[in-house]
Amino acid sequence: MAATEHVPWHRRQDLRPAVGHGFWWFMFGNGGAIAAIFLPVTILVVGVLGPLGVNNWMEDSKHFAWTLGNPIIKLYFIVLCFLTFVHAAHRLRYALFDLGIRGATRALEWGCYGLAILATLAAAALLVVTP
Amino acid sequence: MSDAGDLSAGPAHTYRRQLGGGWFLRRPSYFLYMVRELTVVFMTAWLLWFLYEVWLLKQNAFVTLTGNYAVLAFSTVCLLFTLYHAVTFLNLSGLILRIPIGDRFAPAVVVKGLAFGGLLFVTAAGGAVMVYLGYVKL
């Protein structure tokens, strides 16, 4: 019986790293951290304190437009949207698995991540052209 | 020869317990796990609402949010879920982030403290800037 040829681990096809899987986990981790740190204050000031009468950058259309005219603010919201959407896509994809939806893995992945990318592109386009 | 030692007898049987769709209702900890997973729905919903307000601004149809209690109620719910996400996510930072210091790693409690310190700093500084921008005379 011929001896099986030894193949180093880094040349074995069955041990190739799951680059795509790692990429989405990486984005999930970063998105979760950025959303955890930056989203609460944004919701607090705009959505809670604003309606209660505390002046802020969304006080009226003049202040809103003036603040959104700043490219750094645009970039901030584009990045916040992108990372939060990708984080949400990854979490939802695994939450659906936990809820018993275990078929059509590829379709679910494309659906979740695809929607996140499309929503980011739409958000970026809107933020770039506004005001 | 017995079946126990015969690998050609057929595929191995696995005895994985099947979970129903309502498994997370069995224990409070399971339920809180699923609540944590679904926090992203509220975070995403709030950002989509914000983008809707940007779109209204673009259409010259933006109306001030002062006194809008529907927005207040919606945002309060979203804020609670976002804070739940923040606390549970940053709580894990001490386990996940491995910051090398020489031949050792920074203690988990230090990493966690930095993460929550960052949240507090961004909330205080970012909040102050956002409120200040509302007082700028245009």
Structure report:
Chain A has 131 residues and is mostly helical. Chain A has a single domain, classed as Fumarate reductase/succinate dehydrogenase, transmembrane subunit (3 helical TM bundles of succinate and fumarate reductases, Up-down Bundle). Chain A is 70% helix and 0% strand. By secondary structure, chain B is an all-alpha fold. Chain B has one domain: Fumarate reductase/succinate dehydrogenase, transmembrane subunit (3 helical TM bundles of succinate and fumarate reductases, Up-down Bundle), CATH 1.20.1300.10. Chain B has 4 helices and 2 strands; from the N terminus they run αααββα. A two-stranded antiparallel ribbon of chain B has the order 1-2. In chain B, a hairpin with a 2-residue loop joins strand 1 and strand 2. In chain B, helix 1 crosses helix 2. The model of chain B has no long low-confidence stretch (mean pLDDT 89). At the A-B interface, helix 1, helix 2, helix 3 and helix 4 of A face helix 1, helix 2 and helix 4 of B.
Oligomer: heterodimer
Cα gyration radius of chain B (Å) = 25 Å
Report the count of strand segments of chain A.
Answer: 0
Uncertain stretches of chain B: none
Largest interface: A-B, 59 and 58 residues
If you consult CATH, what is the topology of chain B?
3 helical TM bundles of succinate and fumarate reductases
Indicate the overall shape of chain A.
elongated
Number of strands of chain B: 2
Strand and helix order of chain B: HHHEEH
- CATH superfamily placement of chain A: Fumarate reductase/succinate dehydrogenase, transmembrane subunit
Distance between the termini of chain B: 91 Å
Any descriptors?
heterodimer; A: 131 residues; mainly alpha; 3 helical TM bundles of succinate and fumarate reductases; 4 helices; elongated; B: 138 residues; flat
